[in-house]
Design goal:
- It is a single chain.
- By secondary structure, this protein is α/β, with parallel strands linked by helices.
- It folds into 2 domains: about 260 residues, Type I PLP-dependent aspartate aminotransferase-like (Major domain) (Aspartate Aminotransferase, domain 2); about 120 residues, Aspartate Aminotransferase, domain 1 (Alpha-Beta Complex), CATH 3.90.1150.
- It has 15 helices and 12 strands.
- A 7-stranded mixed beta sheet has the order 1-7-6-5-4-2-3, sandwiched between helices. A 3-stranded antiparallel beta sheet has the order 10-12-11, with helices on one face. A two-stranded antiparallel sheet has the order 8-9.
- Helix 3 runs antiparallel to helix 10, helix 5 runs parallel beside helix 10 and helix 10 crosses helix 13.
- It is globular.
Length: about 500
């Protein structure tokens, strides 16, 4: 090992710290009957290269690693579309109560009545919030809820003998999961252009709907952070053509207590509890993407849903269900957190959540519009989309700006989305941030804009203060190095 520099932290991997024969744990004597090993075909041909380290080394390693985490608990995290809001710690406490954390999904219904009651009440709450009263909490993520909703639409038309409806319409600003989910559901994707204001081109939509239209998928607010002003006309056009209207309601942070999707003419929606309803969603999970539908479509919901008979709760299957979408009943821990959040905030609090999220986004929009381009120069909802084309003309990209933000302790916004906005930076401050935090973000963005003129290489080479600086992202995507290998196993490609 080379001599470290002063102030340098030991960031070696556990395998790199390994010393043959070093032990971190003493196993007790076997106190259960010894079991035979599996068939030889299931055993490793060579020993696993497990690290041999002491217990203090393990503790120090993971403690040091934890200090490198970038999270909403440590820094401002304006990742647009993802809604990285602060998660109240009381939600965590509720999820870890023994009666919540200590149950098993295969227990008989009569032994988990409290858990089933919570699920049933959460179904009711989400139905009331969205105006779509029939709810299944099974989907484990937004895309799974989205896919479930599209399967419901297909099953509905097939049941009516209208199997020819196989087209999914969606705006050109749609999230990438929309066309992917539609294709997985066996639907043909047709794109509807946006107008000059970032809204759905209503006349183009009118010309595209026909007897083959199964569903029109619309994100509300849009991926540009805008409320669709022609929403009632849009839903009417689709319904008159015999189709259904689907809401990508992954993020309801601008609608809570203000407007209901069902009242706007939507037939189906999904919502990400790990966004709007303040549950963690870092590290790839856990997640929850309930699917919500009108009463007409309730028989086609995935199974299971929780039904109530008097004071008894049980898992049930809708009459014409599209089937299961996962092995059990959803991410129960996430459901508990969402339930705790809704009960704590209440109806009035829900509206305040949306109002504050909208105010915060527009505060940033108006403060930065004189230095950074804006995708749509009008009142936005819970997120604003910057378009720094002037900075790009000076040789500094949205990627460079994002990387430089890391040096200031701010997580980058969502970059290059939506695709219809050049150099897009989608900023979502959420309702949980203070004015002080927003003012600091604004000041940092203005400082970065000055750096673009005085020293653009500061941005080209950013970040400067992280353990790993600028990566070759194209090569990393094509040749990912995902696990440790000893030096002798590495190739030039790695």
């Amino acid at each position: 090992m080379n001599a470290p520099f002063p102030g340098e932290i030991d960031r070696r991997l556990l395998n790199e710290r390994s010393v043959s024969g070093r032990i971190g744990l003493q196993l007790q004597e076997l106190d259960v009957p010894e079991q035979p090993l599996p068939d030889a075909g299931l055993l490793r041909s060579v020993e696993a290269r497990l690290p041999e380290v002491s217990q203090p080394e393990v503790v120090r390693y993971f403690t040091t690693l934890s200090t490198m985490n970038f999270s909403i608990d440590t820094n401002f995290y304006p990742l647009g579309s993802c809604t990285m809001k602060y998660n109240p710690k009381v939600n965590e406490e509720m999820a870890f109560l023994p009666g919540m954390a200590g149950i098993h999904p295969n227990q008989p219904d009569e032994t988990v009545q409290g858990a089933l009651q919570l699920i049933w009440e959460l179904q009711q709450d989400l139905g009331e919030i969205t105006g779509l009263p029939a709810v299944c909490l099974g989907p484990l993520a937004g895309a799974q809820g989205e896919y479930s909703g599209l399967m419901i639409a297909r099953a509905y038309f097939q049941d009516r003998g209208d199997a020819n409806r196989t087209v999914a319409l969606m705006p050109d600003s749609a999230h990438g999961t929309n066309p992917a989910s539609a294709a997985m559901a066996g639907l043909e994707v047709v794109t509807v252009p946006s107008d000059s204001e970032g809204n759905v081109d209503v006349e183009a939509l009118r010309g595209l709907v026909d007897e083959r239209t199964c569903v029109f998928m619309l994100t509300l607010p849009s991926t540009l952070g805008l409320f669709e002003p022609n929403i009632l006309e849009i839903t009417s056009i689709v319904h008159e053509a015999g189709g259904l209207v689907y809401a990508d309601g992954a993020n309801l942070n601008a609608l809570l207590g203000i407007v209901k999707l069902g009242d706007l003419g939507f037939d189906i929606a999904h919502s990400n509890l790990h966004k709007t309803f303040s549950t963690p969603h870092g590290g790839g999970g856990p997640g929850a993407g309930p699917v919500l539908v009108s009463e007409t479509l309730a028989p086609y919901l995935p199974t299971p849903v929780v039904d109530r008979d008097g004071e008894t709760y049980r898992f049930g299957a809708p009459d014409k269900t599209v089937g299961r979408v996962n092995g059990f009943h959803g991410s129960f821990g996430v459901l508990v957190r969402a339930y705790a959040y809704i009960r704590a905030v209440g109806a009035e609090g829900m509206r305040e959540v949306s109002e504050n999220a909208i105010i915060n986004a527009n505060y940033i929009r108006t403060a930065l519009s004189d230095e950074f381009g804006i995708a749509a120069d009008r009142v936005c909802m819970h997120e604003c989309v910057l378009s720094p084309q002037a900075q790009k003309a000076k040789g500094v990209s949205a990627l460079d700006i994002s990387k430089r933000l890391i040096d200031y302790g701010i997580h980058p916004p969502t970059m290059y989305f939506p695709l219809i906005v050049p150099e897009a930076l989608m900023v979502e401050p959420t309702e949980t941030e203070t004015k002080d935090t927003l003012d600091r973000f604004i000041a940092v963005m203005r400082q970065i804009n000055k750096e673009i003129d005085s020293d653009p290489d500061l941005l080209h080479d950013a970040p400067h203060d992280t353990p790993n600086t600028r990566l070759d992202e194209a090569n990393a995507a094509r040749h990912p190095y995902l696990r440790w290998q000893p030096d002798e196993d590495l190739t030039a490609a790695d």
